[in-house]
Write a structure and sequence with these properties.
The protein is α+β, with helices and mostly antiparallel strands. The protein has 20 helices and 28 strands. Strands 1, 2, 3, 4, 5, 6, 12 and 13 form an eight-stranded mixed sheet that branches. The relative contact order is 0.09. Bound molecules: N,N-dimethyl-L-histidine (AVI). Residues 55, 63, 166-168, 170-171, 211, 218, 221, 287, 289 line the site of N,N-dimethyl-L-histidine (AVI).
Length: 765
């Protein structure tokens, strides 16, 4: 039996209107860049795919013929080397060349199985229909989707042989190739095979002829991209003035394919209200086709955990098929996880201790306000939590001291009473932290991160311990911020970066359609982020940046805190009782201007920074004053995570790369939000700035479980807090450590809370 079935928990392949939207956005991105480019992904609509079939038949285009010959001669040997495995093919198309392999698989296997993967569902249907007739014994199951969508399903198909033919790897740039190989490597199991077609470096004349065939199909292929823009996006380009140019680029060992404009032209995208002026003679890069040296490609693959099995080539050495085997995947995963977790634990602990340094003992033991604990309680709680969970995961059933456990149990002692408890002094707490850490490190050293134990699998419990401490470090900073008597001078404060771009005003459109919300990740994500599920949303407009102090000043000046019609009934009640008139840390100066207090420092309010320390009621009222509304958390997550082009969610707004300084203001370095526009590299697919870092963003949603939620590993973290009392916050602030931050992370609090480093962003229908 072949599985998997198409996965209902992931949003399915883009519908035509969404593909069109993704195409438009890609064109806007590429034409807005310098030098301009267009994505080769969009060369393959129905017309483009047909033209490409013609290219492969041209006498000058040697790759397809040559690869087919290599397959015909070596398919039986390849099957023998791969053993009885399911053949999976990425970008299967019509599977013409693959038939050599399928014949060998049918001859060599008792139960031959083939899983073609392709973005085009119609292509897959046609291909499977033909194959059923030709290979009646072949078990077939197709997977429609992008590579990024399909590859995570591979684990269930192992043992397998993954074929990626035609030298399609040549169309990836270096960064894309690295991402692709990492994705393949992480989804193959030990012993799985990878059959990779690579076009080889050869004489320039042969190479350039292949991309400039005399019959003109290569040219037609390039021009079709612009014809497609005319067809789908409403541009009005004169194809007669666009020339196909394909040249060997020796420096980068690749064919560069350009569209050269003979005359000046304007690309108008009426629906998206964008226009681009192309100069006479300007060239737009539409595709690269990299050519490789076998040993170089083998070395690249080795870096991703692939060992060479055998290589196959033609007599002219024009093309090669590399048969690779994934090795030591499990072992590599364990040591990588161990290294990552050791780093996270050490980094977070150093941060916790560093944070305490500027504080004297009295400041560590006092309770500044009833909604935040004395710092020593947080420290004792972090230590108790860590010791308990490390012991539990390590199978140690020795009862920890029940008195201590009770003292630091947040349910037994709610925040308001923690100031009156008999708590240990700071040095003792630090000692407890160290003792607990020894237990965790011992666990990490001896465990094999046993996959059958959900606490240990992929180091979950250790990640939870590190994240728990990270979250408390943010709460400790909230307490320090609230205490007006502390002039906090941390050892490493840096000025928040200034804006680096100016496209932060206005909104961006998020089209209607499904997206995958939440995650199935069991290595890092909390229970409330699971499971991944498809959410269908109506279209909406979202502000590209959070609401700034400048906007809030206008809200205040316009009587925002006095106008009943802007507030909900509960919000108005809260306002009357609290007598609030501005965000929590704003102070009016003697001259009538506004200052802001941050960790004991008072400075003029920065109008470009996102507003911070407002509660849900205030955020909701300000959104109404702006004629907009707060986002639902599903809208927030779609705008932050969904990559329409690949139909997969991103881990962070900018992609899956770990957070770096250019992406977001995280990790407690600036002690204030950065001005909007400070992190253009951190924009989401839809172009939203600063969705992670700077300020948490209040959403209109109540904190509720996703359908299929299962409490793990303890109900007190999420389950106890579900319900209509709490509103969800998304994103993370400058005070959030990066290890506790991702697009799926859900924070929650009561609507009147202002101690959080929280602001807001608006949406409208
Ligand atoms: C699909 N890919 C491997 C082809 C190539 O040779 O790079 C695409 C192509 N573009 C123009 N001609 C062929």
């Amino acid at each position: 039996m072949l599985r998997p079935q198409p996965d209902v928990r992931r949003a399915s392949v883009a519908q035509p209107d969404l593909l069109r939207e993704a195409f438009a956005r890609s064109v806007i991105r590429g034409l807005g860049d310098s030098p301009r480019w267009l994505s080769c992904r969009y060369l393959y609509d129905r017309e483009g795919s047909e033209i490409f079939e013609h290219i492969t038949e041209q006498p000058e285009y040697y790759p397809t013929r040559t690869e087919s010959g290599i397959l015909a001669r070596n398919a039986a040997r390849i099957r023998e080397l791969c053993g009885d495995t399911t053949l999976v093919e990425l970008g299967a198309g019509s599977a013409t060349k693959t038939r050599h392999l399928l014949r060998a698989w049918c001859n060599g296997s008792r139960s031959p199985a083939y899983v073609p993967i392709d973005i085009s569902r119609t292509m897959l249907t046609d291909t499977c229909k033909a194959l059923r007739r030709e290979f009646p014994r072949l078990k077939l199951r197709s997977l429609a989707g992008s590579y990024e969508q399909a590859l995570p399903s591979l684990g269930e198909l192992s043992p397998l042989t993954l074929a990626f033919l035609g030298s399609s790897v040549g169309n990836f740039n270096e960064e894309e190739l690295a991402e692709f190989l990492a994705l393949v490597a992480s989804n193959l199991s030990d012993g799985d095979h990878f059959l990779l077609g690579v076009d080889l470096v050869k004489d320039t004349a042969t190479l350039e002829a292949a991309y400039n065939d005399a019959a003109g199909w290569s040219s037609a292929f390039t021009l079709n991209l612009f014809a497609r823009m005319n067809r789908e996006l409403g541009t009005d380009l004169d194809l007669g003035s666009i020339e196909h140019v394909a040249r060997w680029n020796a420096e980068h060992s690749r064919i560069d394919i350009f569209a050269r404009f003979d005359r000046a032209a304007t690309v108008q995208l009426p629906e998206w209200k964008r226009e681009f002026r192309i100069a006479a003679g300007e060239r737009i890069l539409v595709e690269i086709s990299r050519k490789f040296v076998i040993s170089d490609m083998a070395a690249i693959a080795a870096a991703y955990g692939f060992e060479p099995v055998e290589r196959f080539t033609d007599p002219n050495r024009h093309f090669a098929l590399l048969l690779l085997r994934r090795t030591s995947a499990a072992q590599a995963r364990v040591s990588h996880t161990r290294d990552r977790l050791t780093g996270e634990l050490a980094g977070q602990r150093a941060r916790t201790l560093e944070m305490l340094e500027p504080l004297v003992e009295a400041q560590l033991t006092v309770q500044h306000c009833p909604i935040l604990s004395p710092v020593v309680w947080d420290l004792g709680h972090i230590a108790t939590f860590e010791r308990e969970w490390a012991a539990r995961a390590g199978g140690q059933h020795t009862q920890p001291d029940p008195v201590v456990t009770r003292l630091y149990d947040p349910l037994v002692h709610p925040r308001a009473v923690r100031g009156s408890l008999q708590l240990a002094d700071p040095p003792h707490c630090v000692g407890e932290l160290q003792a607990a850490r020894a237990t965790t490190l011992a666990l990490l050293e001896r465990t094999s991160l046993d996959a059958s134990d959900p606490l240990l699998r992929d180091g979950y419990v250790v990640s939870m311990i590190a994240q728990h401490e990270a979250q408390h470090s943010e709460t400790i900073l909230q307490g320090i911020q609230l205490s007006s008597d502390v002039a906090y001078e941390p050892a490493r404060r840096i000025d928040p970066p200034r804006p680096r771009c100016s496209d932060t005003a206005g909104e961006t459109f998020v089209p209607a359609g499904p997206f995958t919300m939440g995650t199935d990740d069991r290595a890092v994500a909390y229970d409330n982020e699971r499971p991944a599920h498809v959410v269908e949303l109506a279209s909406f407009w979202i502000d590209v940046a959070p609401v700034t102090n400048a906007t809030w000043l206008r809200f205040v000046a316009d009587g925002g805190y006095r106008r009943r019609e802007l507030w909900t009934a509960d919000g108005w009640r809260w306002l009357r009782e609290s007598r609030v008139e501005h965000p929590a840390q704003w102070i009016r100066g003697d001259d009538g201007g506004w200052n802001e207090r941050a960790f004991g420092r008072i400075a003029p309010l920065d109008p470009e920074q996102p507003v911070v320390h407002v509660c849900w009621y205030e955020a909701d009222a300000c959104a109404r004053w702006l004629g907009k509304r707060l986002l639902t958390e599903a809208e927030w997550e779609k705008a932050a995570a969904w990559d329409l082009e690949r139909s997969v969610p991103r881990r962070f707004p900018w992609g899956d790369a770990a957070p770096a300084v250019e992406h977001a203001n995280l990790d407690q370095r600036t002690f204030a939000p950065a001005a909007v526009g400070a992190f253009p590299a951190g924009r989401s697919y839809y172009g939203c700035h600063q969705m992670l870092g700077d300020v948490w963003e209040w959403t209109s949603s109540e904190f509720l479980p996703y359908r299929g939620f299962r409490a793990f590993p303890y109900a007190e973290y999420s389950q106890a807090h579900f319900g209509s009392r709490h509103k969800v916050l998304r994103g993370g602030s400058w005070a959030t450590p990066a290890i506790a931050m991702r697009n799926t992370f859900r924070n929650w609090d009561l609507p009147q809370r202002r101690q959080i480093f929280a602001g807001m962003r608006c949406a409208r229908d």
